[in-house]
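Lab notebook, bench 4. We co-purified these components, and the gel suggests they stay together. Before we commit to crystallization screens, I want a quick structural picture of the whole thing.
Request: model the full complex, all chains together.
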Amino acid sequence: MRPPTPGQASVYMRTATNLRTGITRREVILATAGLVCLGSGARRIASAAEPSPAAPAVSGGPFTLPPLPYAESALDPVISATTLGFHHDKHHKAYVENLNKAVAGTPLADQPLEKIIATTYGVADKAGIYNNAGQHFNHSFYWKSLRPQGGGEPPAVLRHKIDEAFGSMEGLHKEWLAAATSQFGSGWAWLVLDGGKLAVTKTGNADSPLTRGQKPLLTIDVWEHAYYLDYQNRRADYVNAVLDKAINWGFAADNLSV
Ligand code: MN
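Here is the predicted assembly.
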């Protein structure tokens, strides 16, 4: 990934001055240095790719919809512009708006996204907040897990850990595909760091590895809205295409080092 331009970095730093985004000084330093940080979805990253010019703003709450880190058409034909447009501008936007409404006037409004997820997990009367917070985190992470002309050979440090855990790239692909296609109903298929070793895992609905003590490295959205317009019921075709042509190994390598 190429580093952010000075303009991007300064935009990021101005954003970081807003305490409600929950961005820490360390993350600003990382962003300024051109490193992508493992992120809460609330924050704007100093991304290498072009932001979507049509990215809508969401106002009226502590959380904001991050722009796609690439143009809506940039992942075509793996994921069409139509799918990305609906997914980001309608689905993700709605999670952010619902989260803002749900936390308005409560102590949670001032909390970082990961903290909200941790404190509302498994709390019955906070399920609405948990689900929208989880989906905001997961989608923000998903956009960064993809990139135009992705796939291919991972950075050496990541490749070493893949071989260690799965034997080969094919081994990882096979296990990730199995997790994605065996997730019953809506959910997510992840590459995580668990106790220092890579692992593949799946979560249902808005759940993520954050509540399991695992560090997320990459995710694939397997809700039907992520692929149905392009692949209909062929979830495996979508996952295979993402892994071969759109997965962002560089993002995983960056997450390993943070
Ligand atoms: Mn989704």
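Confidence is low (pLDDT under 50) at residues 1-58. Worth comparing against the SEC data before the next meeting. Residues 81-103 form the longest helix (23 residues).
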